[in-house]
UniProtKB/TrEMBL annotation, chains A, B:
Protein name from the UniProt record: Putative transcriptional regulator PhnF
UniProt entry keywords in alphabetical sequence: DNA-binding, Transcription, Transcription regulation
Organism of origin: Palleronia abyssalis
The UniProt record lists the keyword Transcription: yes
Lineage of origin: Bacteria, Pseudomonadati, Pseudomonadota, Alphaproteobacteria, Rhodobacterales
GO biological process, one term: negative regulation of DNA-templated transcription
Protein transport recorded as keyword: no
PROSITE patterns: HTH_GNTR
Length: 236, 236
């Protein structure tokens, strides 16, 4: 066997273990010393195999910590019935929303215009972090028109699901009307919350949802971590 | 008048000139010295006004070059009938596609899977830059299945519109089936082509289009400059 056939056969073995889920996304690989021993090769050969799998995007190294199986990006379906918990669950992951702020205040101009209320009106504003399998995937910020949604602030503080909170506030169903998407880079504060480096690419999504009568009920902003999320659209 | 009323009234005057189109997106503002003279104030006051408008996103400075009126992002509607030329024209802008590559080759694995052809089949691959009002807004790369589209390579080299080239190759109509969206940062090569800095956030869109019989005809990848493009989705 040539050196190349040896490292590429090791890479092939590890690739198969990852594909079969024996090594799960986010799992740490054995050390180079352990892999050397397992395959009966020197560390240089192990490193070649690991470098190759890193290039393919299957592994990523964290300096001083180890080598990890890369997470596949969570697929997040956009459409008239976007629901965070259902979307993440459908991808076989565990969804969680950690709300860091609930307050009642005047709307910004953008919020007032989108929600069709006066800037002297009141919105319930929320902020927080969305997680998938415990990994932060997005920062969210939403504004809800207080007048149309009695009791929503309390409901949001008790329930982790916006859908359930809206139902308790008298809106049993709602629909995504529009989404606007662009890309920005993470500032240091966003990066710290999302556990990424500043300058990492974020998908910025701005959405408007309406009740069955077409009245706006939520104006939302999400910053998704690009390398952790793919938004999917089925136009059919 | 207090210092604040003075600079904010200057900012208000400039804001109105921008809103009315007297100062067009991309236009350079007069120098600080010229603005000082015009408004009869010192440069410090002019700088306060300009800083305020920059914070609002109406202006951006290029070090050593000057201060410019920011371009509003081009709105780019996604849906089953996405057409580049119509989209950009609808935004009141002048669309142009500059094709830098047309070649026939074997498909990559991703292309073969999306287009439902064999990896030993052939695709017509194109690459280029999309411009709006002369400003680069995206890099595009597409793969078309050669077997299903006789004469397409010639048509693409003669016509700037993909829609017209497909029509000549026997596909009078086509539909966007899916779009997948994430965010990445521009590498130096992309940055040079798009006239932006490396590390700028790009929207990465991957799309599949089909003919009326549902057969895939185009697998496309676009890297849109985040600060120049907003993708819009109407879910209604």
């Amino acid at each position: 066997m040539t050196a190349e056939t040896i490292w590429s056969s090791i890479a092939e073995t590890l690739r198969a273990e990852i594909a079969q889920g024996v090594r799960a996304p986010g799992a740490r690989l054995p050390t180079e010393a352990q892999l050397s021993k397992r395959f009966g090769v020197n560390r240089h050969t192990v490193r070649r195999a690991l470098a190759h799998l890193s290039q393919e995007g299957l592994l990523h190294s964290r300096r001083g910590v180890g080598v990890f199986v890369a997470s596949r990006p969570a697929e997040y379906a956009l459409g008239p019935k976007v629901r965070f918990h259902r979307n993440i669950s459908a991808a076989g992951r565990f969804p969680k929303r950690h709300t860091t702020l609930i307050e009642t205040r005047n709307p910004t101009e953008a919020e007032a215009e989108a929600l069709k209320i006066s800037t002297s009106g009141r919105v319930i504003a929320t902020e927080g972090i969305s997680l998938s399998d415990g990994v932060p995937i997005a920062l969210f910020a939403s504004a809800f028109p207080e007048d149309r949604l009695p009791g929503l602030a309390d409901a949001l503080s008790e329930l982790s699901s916006v859908t359930e909170a809206l139902a308790r506030a008298g809106v049993p169903d709602y629909t995504r009307r529009t989404t606007r998407i662009t890309a920005v880079t993470a500032d240091p504060a966003q990066a710290a919350l999302l556990q990424i480096s500043a300058g990492t690419a974020l998908i910025l999504g701005v959405s408007l949802s309406v009740d069955p009568a077409g009245r706006p009920v939520e104006f939302g902003t999400s910053h998704f971590v690009g390398e952790r999320v793919t938004l999917t659209l089925d136009h059919a």
